[in-house]
Write a structure and sequence with these properties.
Chain lengths: 258, 251
């Protein structure tokens, strides 16, 4: 496994076109692999994510079973002569091998939190539909619900409320979801783009269906976790978590707790 | 040497250094005269009391949340005579959070700490109409530090999160770097100069001396997520070597 960090040159117009469209960025990431990884759903897959780094840098992170070649992307949307600062591939496999159950890590996960619902007007027995989680509370609830199967637990927030605070909160039985865990949700954005960005006019006219846009809700979780099930956790890191993995969701990265 | 740290947070703050007549401007960060005045008020000193011991303290401030500058077009009239007072523009920093520190001799700093804990005159953030929204003292005696001023400011966690109660985690990520403004040691060249060292708060004749300021940066103590800092760059692939074995792992 490899983890690659690519620094995007945001002042180039082709870089902005990529940032504007998860579809194009998906294509650009796909092109980085001469041999496409198998799509049978068994092996580790290519995951990517856009990460806001300090001093207004935007990094593209790619986790992949094979080593990517991002030369084309550096020429389009990076600094071709910047060398390893422009893009670096890290030996992710040896890091994954060294992980141990019980280890505590700071994590970041950009995901598409959703659930399956049947609306009231739907006839009983009809297939359920995907519906996004929109609020912070629901999105944290989604992560907490899936953490056990994913092989980790988000550390609880142990700062006990002081006496004054408990009095102020006397009305509520228990604090809201977002206070109970060492977890922050940010960059919660609904994403929407046409399914084929470069579609010609005539084709758009012939195959015009109003629901053709891709829509999903994206949220970034920052927090601290403890590894509970090593095998499941490695699977989470390499196979991704949740839906919309082709469009920049599902990649979880770790950093040492400071 | 001991350092006393104060969290200055409120919906409005106003720290004037060169404000005169009808343009009541504010600096971007608390002034030394403003914070020392708060401490003098907490001790219950009268306006014309001697300030030399306070003015000798080393002062510094860290800008945790810069806030935004707003202008208030101020009209007022004298209730007794009914005559309008001069129209003035009053500037404020809205929604700002600062961490201010004074460093000095241990017993004096501890005396100031107890004074801020139970102030004789109510503290305010630069102007009487700007009450603090949070306790000035940090929780768990974190306000008293045995570190020198600069280290104490660097090592205190970021205070700019929006959570109004202490047990709520901050909703926002701190900026990567925080600006600090520190008293310049006499042998160094200051970056900025400001006339805000108080000599006398006597309302009939307030007097201030120049102060040299050094600008410094502190990294916010809440970490920025860097998923690659602890990884080793993968060795560059050579054309003659076989595929690296890690790529064929079962996960």
């Amino acid at each position: 496994m490899y983890l690659t960090r690519f620094r995007i040159n945001t002042s180039r117009s082709s870089a902005r076109a990529l940032l504007a469209s998860p579809q194009r960025l998906h294509g650009a990431v796909d092109m980085a692999f001469p041999k496409p990884p198998p799509r049978d759903g068994n092996g580790p897959r290519v995951l990517w994510r856009l990460d806001q780094a300090p001093t207004n840098r935007i990094n593209l992170l790619i986790s992949s079973p094979d080593r990517p070649d991002l030369t084309h992307l550096a020429e389009q949307a990076g600094w071709p002569t910047l060398g390893t600062e422009g893009w670096t591939t890290f030996a992710y496999g040896e890091f994954l091998n060294k992980l141990a159950a019980g280890g505590e890590w700071a994590f970041r996960l950009t995901a598409n939190p959703l659930h399956y619902i049947r609306r009231e007007q739907d006839p009983p027995g009809s297939p359920t539909k995907r519906a996004p989680h929109m609020t912070v509370g629901h999105q944290i609830g989604w992560l907490i619900k899936h953490q056990e199967r994913a092989g980790f637990e988000v550390l609880p927030n142990e700062q006990a409320p002081t006496d004054n605070d408990t009095k102020a909160d006397a009305g509520a039985e228990e604090p809201p979801m977002q206070w109970r865990y060492q977890l922050v949700v940010h960059e919660r954005t609904p994403v929407r783009f046409p399914q084929r960005a470069e579609r010609s006019k005539s084709r758009r006219e012939t195959s015009s269906s109003p629901g053709a846009d891709v829509r999903f809700t994206r949220a970034t979780f920052d927090g601290q976790l403890r590894i509970t099930d090593l095998a499941a956790f490695r699977r989470t890191l390499t196979h991704g978590m949740g839906k919309s993995k082709a469009y920049g969701c599902g990649l979880m990265t770790l950093a040492p707790v400071r | 040497m001991t350092t006393l740290l104060l969290r200055l947070a409120g919906p409005l703050q106003s720290w004037g250094a060169s404000a005169r007549f009808v343009q009541r401007t504010t600096e971007n960060a608390p002034t030394k005269s403003g914070v020392l005045g708060l401490l003098a008020g907490a001790e219950g000193r009268p306006r014309d009391a001697d300030l030399s011991d306070l003015a000798a303290l080393r002062f510094g401030v860290r800008i945790d949340r810069p806030g935004s500058r707003i202008r208030d077009f101020h009209t007022a009239e004298n209730r007794d005579t009914g005559r309008a007072l001069p129209l003035s523009d009053r500037y404020y920093l809205a929604d700002a959070v600062f961490l201010a520190g004074v460093e000095g001799e241990d017993t004096f700093i501890r005396r100031l700490y107890t004074a801020v804990d139970a102030p004789r005159f109510l503290p305010y953030l630069g102007r009487r109409s700007c009450p603090p929204s949070h306790p000035l003292l940090l929780q768990d005696n974190a306000s008293l530090s045995s570190l020198p001023l600069e280290d104490a400011l660097r090592n205190t966690p970021w205070q700019g999160g929006r959570g109004p109660l202490s047990h709520r985690p901050p909703r926002e990520q701190p900026p990567a770097e925080l600006n600090m403004l520190l008293d310049c040691p006499p042998q160094d060249t200051p970056d900025i100069q400001l006339r805000d060292t108080p000599l006398s708060y006597n309302p009939s004749h307030r007097r201030y001396a120049m102060r040299g300021i050094q600008a410094r940066h502190a990294t916010a103590s809440a970490p920025v997520h860097d998923p690659t800092a602890h990884l080793r760059p993968a060795p560059t692939a050579r054309h003659d070597s076989p595929a690296p074995p890690l790529a064929t792992d079962d996960f």
